[in-house]
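Reproducibility note. Readers wishing to regenerate the assembly model reported in the main text can use the exact inputs given here. Chain order matters: entities are listed in the order in which they were concatenated for prediction.
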Amino acid sequence: MTILGQQFIGAEAVKGANGEIFGIDAASGSKLTPGFGGATKADLERACALAEAAFEPYRALPPEERALFLEAIADNIQAIGEELIERCMAESGLPRPRLEGERARTMGQLRLFAGVLRDGGFLDARIDPALPERKPLPRPDLRLNNVPLGPVAVFGASNFPLAFSVAGGDTASALAAGCPVIVKAHSAHPGTSELVGRAVQKAVKDRGLPEGTFSLLYDSGREIGQGLVADPRIRAVGFTGSRAGGTALMKIAAARPMPIPVYAEMSSINPVLLFPGALKARGEAIGKGFIASLTLGAGQFCTNPGLIIAIEGEGLDAFVRGATEAIAAAPAAVMLTPGIHRAYCEGTGKLRGHAAVELVGQGTEGGELRGQAAFFATSAENFLAHHDLQDEVFGASSLLVRCRDADEVAKVIAALEGQLTVALHMEAEDHAAAAKLLPKLERLAGRILVNGFGTGVEVAHAMVHGGPYPSTSDGRSTSVGSLAIQRFLRPVCYQDLPGALLPPALQDGNPLGLWRRIDGKLGQD
Amino acid sequence: MTILGQQFIGAEAVKGANGEIFGIDAASGSKLTPGFGGATKADLERACALAEAAFEPYRALPPEERALFLEAIADNIQAIGEELIERCMAESGLPRPRLEGERARTMGQLRLFAGVLRDGGFLDARIDPALPERKPLPRPDLRLNNVPLGPVAVFGASNFPLAFSVAGGDTASALAAGCPVIVKAHSAHPGTSELVGRAVQKAVKDRGLPEGTFSLLYDSGREIGQGLVADPRIRAVGFTGSRAGGTALMKIAAARPMPIPVYAEMSSINPVLLFPGALKARGEAIGKGFIASLTLGAGQFCTNPGLIIAIEGEGLDAFVRGATEAIAAAPAAVMLTPGIHRAYCEGTGKLRGHAAVELVGQGTEGGELRGQAAFFATSAENFLAHHDLQDEVFGASSLLVRCRDADEVAKVIAALEGQLTVALHMEAEDHAAAAKLLPKLERLAGRILVNGFGTGVEVAHAMVHGGPYPSTSDGRSTSVGSLAIQRFLRPVCYQDLPGALLPPALQDGNPLGLWRRIDGKLGQD
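Running the prediction on these inputs yields the following structure tokens for the assembly.
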């Protein structure tokens, strides 16, 4: 047994003295041992001081060294073995195959960023050579590359205890960028956090990195998380969670003497547009596929299909038939935490009692800690009249908006808040209608997908897991995929700096073998 | 005479009915005719509605069309001819050669962004092809490119009536990105603004673009500017001006139901570090060069050298001698506006009366509307004890911080706020000391330059005119150079979108001939 209730402050493993947190067995609600001590203000101070001290030496490492570090973390996570999966299953209520897949994804993310470091494109190296003879004024030698922002605070997410938690996407991309990371563990999975935290700490030690490169703190209240965002040494924040939580952190970050960027992935209902041709061709099958996506992982995905938009007719009737049949067979599923289950019951309860909403179908009965899937419907008119119908209900709940025609569909789309994804189900005959909507959809969401659902976010170079506010705090970014590293970088220009003092990315002879822009032209000089 | 006191709301040229603004002859303080009507709320509403209506058709244009539009603006500015220079000289008090140079720079910026559009790298096109056979799950086809944010509000800057005003860098980069622009003219140069505004309006018409692509409003108070930032159709803001002005806009933008990015370039004192070797070799010459940079354009540059940091000794004495001699010969210079002159007199007056500060040298006496150059000094100890000594005094005022040793230099640097530039004067023997400081300087500023001064910002691909807060509101960006276009873009991912519906940048066969990342690898497929 290697779960000791410890947090990691640089090279130390120490139990916090500020209250006690317990993991909860998601399926039974019973306490898991041991208890985890919450961080004190002194712990926070020490973690921040160590991160600040680590920043310069850590970011000065060659990209290859940081790549090897990320790979070492992945290897160490693998090496935890069965204990990690079992503890994570208990704390999250998620089934083994999902968590084995999530572990693979977590390691894959770390390795993806190792590749990003070796590629070097993230540095955006640019050189405008001096033009000493230019008239009326000579041009100096100008060179640009990206540098890391500084220590980053990462908040673990409840719904991805591995892939968006201690060594998840935010941590991997910040470490890749050259930023030390302080993680505030999510209190829903402290044991999982400790196991992964120890894997990261070991990689720091084995690779001989400065100890402050990584720390992991527990928070028995909100003081430590909020203090982390307010600390002047922290220069950016990664967060996945509720809109209330994300906007609270945005406010703290904006009120600092030096405001910092907050990358909060907050809430999204991920509209699904069913075009008439697709409904006609395979309405019932789409309905079944929809329920499979809706109920995956008890519906606890940021990209869960929470809103269906379609024009009434036989095709939609078939869709509803397929969905209703499928959802009736959907077993109530253990939710991540008692609190999330409570919020889900409140959210679906509100919809059940909503005058403008009818219940179309539901899964097998829920009960303590288990969420009952629910499928509701309303008219476009009602949807447009009730803004609260856009509120995310985190879990396997979705709302069908029945439209009379394409104009109503367009009105519903125009009324929507920013989203992570929008899914289109269509056949060739629907292409013209879809093409007309595409410019609106590009403004609405970070990812547009066809004949599928947003759940299952591929970790890749062309992925965007982000979108206009309020789906995220900053729609110019993605938290999944290789582009996520850009969140933690800023450009610096060097003018007439002697060659010996230039960063390797910008030196003559291109020692890193990068693609660089010379006078604006991309090449591998 | 083509100055009619008109603003431009889409295709209309109309005098505003909300109060009257007059250009002021900077040298004499007398009113220039005609008067300019301030925009009403109805004008603002109409400009925003037109910008929103223009957004979709404008951004859908092929990059080549937008490039031709930017070039047409440049041509039209050239075609205004002498009237533009004369009016701008009167309104700004800046001399002819400076404004002829600034006009060339303005046209150069527009043409640079035409080149950026033709290159297409700003789209960051990425394709991860489908892997239908992958186990355990197939990979969908994923494609990513950048899309424009939406209509952008640009605030003209007082100190660059051409290059950072109506058709300046913010406007050029936003239009290049595909964003319609509404400019709030700076009230210091309404006539210059009208002339340039008409040139842009004509280009919109001649190129057959949607009229809302560009509007220009005057504001007789603050209501229109603030209303612009608060309007839900505006999706980003470009601003160059004071810290008070910039932070006020940041607050409005953050308090919107949908917060938006504000790119405010605000205040910077641009530290100059004089290393011992350089002081020994050419202290006096550096002193003379410093005063030439300090007094250029009456010191009214964002990158004006407002702070000198050096170790005491003979070399520094020589520098001070050179600077003192040079500043004594510096003529008092007309400042941009009576208000800027007043603020300069207040700022230098405060330093003259500051117990911790001594006056080292000054230019010929100022007087009404003319600023007298001033060079002050203090000790490192005093500098560290008085945070107000970091306040920017906009104009030809600078402060020398005398340090006893390298440790004190490091302490002074550590105490500095974020800056646009930091300049290093050094010889080969100083390289080791400079190398030690470089990591701190990279955190401090957006541009590090050697043996020169920050004034004279090259418009290029490797330029960064930006820096950590409070020099700008968002240190992840630059407002000068080709990278400035990134401020107005966000990534969108298309998953399994039928080829016919894909944007051209992502279509098979690469019709735009772009460099694209295929499976993460850069190439010109």
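We highlight two features of this model. The mean pLDDT of chain A is 97. The two ends of chain A are 53 Å apart (CA to CA).
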